[in-house]
Amino acid sequence: MTTASPARARALLQSTIASDPNDWCIARFSLLADQIRQAGQAIAPDFALTVQDYPAEADARAQLHTQLRQGHYGQVWLMAPDLDNGPEPDFFAALEAAVAAGTQLVIARDHTDLGSSLLALGGCLEPVTKTQTFKRTWPDLPSDSEYVNPGCPAIDTPCVVTGQNGGVQICRKRSGHPLLAFDTMIPGHLVLPAHPHEGVIRPTTASQQVLLSSYSITSGREQITAILDEAPGRGAVLHHSTFHHFADFNLQVGRGAPDFVIDPPSHQIDDSPGLLNDQRAYVAAVVGYAMAS
């Protein structure tokens, strides 16, 4: 164990929505919170994790924005399930300032226009608005939809089917980056939770590299799972194609989901909990990489 610098020993797990028990609020990522906390404390006993939704109170929002601008957190895990109900613009300006000063950022959203508040990002985080794809800003979006569910019209392209909630997908390592230098169940691959409508991410700058990819079980097309952006002079940005790689529902389906989730779940992980070993190791690797940077 080591003693990390004050900022490196602090992390933030944040959603882009106000607390709502019938949405993908941060309480639905409690297992991820435990993983981040345990990984950080294994490196530095003084590691502390703040877990919160976007504050409703003006004073709490101002405090969050100030902390970000001051580099209070060494890493921010941002779960973005909003749909035109995300944070105010000052949050994104503060997040830009944090990353410009060295804060490491993990971003995970999902299909179609979820997480659309991220389109407000600019400055050093302007590439996020293109790497994370949105229906509303993709004029040449392919017309073929991988997921069509008449009972849930909000699910629309861009999205890719990698499996059922509660099941897994096999992701291929696309990079020899040190972030992926840990033992996995299948050499050269990671087993991660699946989802029936993951979002689509694309590399758009020279500083970005694809870390992981899998395949659509509908079309067979390759699906990019994770992209790391290490532009010089600022903190790294790690993109994930969906927050369902980390949600409680996808790790332990019995923990439940918002009532608008109608996709039939799988019990694959429940029946074989060891299938989450790679996911746990990956989260620990991301935490450790951010603390060492």
Q: How would you explain this protein's 3D organization?
A:
The protein has one domain (about 10-135, about 155-290): Rossmann fold (3-Layer(aba) Sandwich). Helix content is about 25%, strand content about 20%. It has helices at about 30-45, 60-70, 90-100, 130, 250, 270, 275-290; strands at about 10-15, 50, 75-80, 105-110, 170-175, 190-195, 210-215, 220-230, 235-240. A 9-stranded mixed beta sheet has the order 2-1-3-4-9-8-7-5-6, covered by helices on one side. Helix 2 packs parallel to helix 3 (about 90-100).
Average pLDDT confidence is 94
> CATH-wise, what's the superfamily?
Class I glutamine amidotransferase (GATase) domain
Poorly predicted spans: none
Can you identify the CATH class?
Answer: Alpha Beta
| CATH architectural category | 3-Layer(aba) Sandwich
Q: How much of the residues is beta strand, in percent?
A: 15-25%
Strand order of the largest sheet: 2-1-3-4-9-8-7-5-6
Distance N to C terminus: 16 Å
Roughly how much helix do the residues carry, as a percent range? Answer: 10-25%
- From the alpha-carbon coordinates, what is the Rg to the nearest angstrom? 18 Å
**Biggest sheet details:** 9 strands, mixed
Helix/strand/pairing category: alpha/beta
Helix-strand sequence: EHEHEHEHEEEEEHHH
Question: What is the number of helical segments per DSSP (H or I, 4+ residues)?
Answer: 7
Shape: globular
Total tally of structural domains: 1
Number of strands: 9
